[in-house]
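A.,

Following up on our hallway conversation. Structure tokens first:
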């Protein structure tokens, strides 16, 4: 992480409890080193134990990541950076429109059958990641499902959660209610050869 990136990230990071006098003890490692290590793991898709010796011990980095994840600090950190990016673009900090899309990914042999599905359109057996972004492409929500779950089915789950988080998604909720209705009406059965001459 460059010094300029660190200046932006440092201001967006949650303040440790011990600095605010709420108890606890100082951490043994610099947050910049820890974030660099977590970024290395996610960027290079390596195992925690395969981290280079330049970073703190892998178990300390993993404990840092796990603690942030479990307490919701990683999400809070992401939200603060997204708000900062939206302000830099001259927009309100809360988005008012969202875009949902998905991508099917082939499942490895180790993926259990209960969490995979078959995407008939792309002919992929695996999982699908549904992503909701704001209008400038910043991430709002991710949901991983079996590949046979459509965008419409995922939207029924994701849009109400998005509405809880962002107050300006009234149009999204209206769309959610429309999606919840039954869209396929029973068609009258026609004889197979009714129009044959």
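Then the amino acids I'd put at each of the 197 positions:
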């Amino acid at each position: 992480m460059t010094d300029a990136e660190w200046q932006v990230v440092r201001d967006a990071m949650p303040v440790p409890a011990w600095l605010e006098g709420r108890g606890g003890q100082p951490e043994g490692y610099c947050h910049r080193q820890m974030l660099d290590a977590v970024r290395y793991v996610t960027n290079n898709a390596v195992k925690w134990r395969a981290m280079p010796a330049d970073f703190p011990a892998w178990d300390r980095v993993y404990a840092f990541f796990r603690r942030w994840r479990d307490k919701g600090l990683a999400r809070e950190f992401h939200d603060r950076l997204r708000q900062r990016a939206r302000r830099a673009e001259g927009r309100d900090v809360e988005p008012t429109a969202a875009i949902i899309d998905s991508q099917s990914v082939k499942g490895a042999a180790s993926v259990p059958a209960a969490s995979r599905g078959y995407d008939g359109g792309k002919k992929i057996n695996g999982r699908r990641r549904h992503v909701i972004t704001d209008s400038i492409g910043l991430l709002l929500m991710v949901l991983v499902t079996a590949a046979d779950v459509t965008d419409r089915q995922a939207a029924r789950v994701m849009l109400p959660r998005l509405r809880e988080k962002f107050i300006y998604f009234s149009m999204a909720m209206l769309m959610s209610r429309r999606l919840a209705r039954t869209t396929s009406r029973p068609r009258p059965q026609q004889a197979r050869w009714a129009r044959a001459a």
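The two ends are 74 Å apart (CA to CA). Curious whether your intuition agrees with the design.

B.
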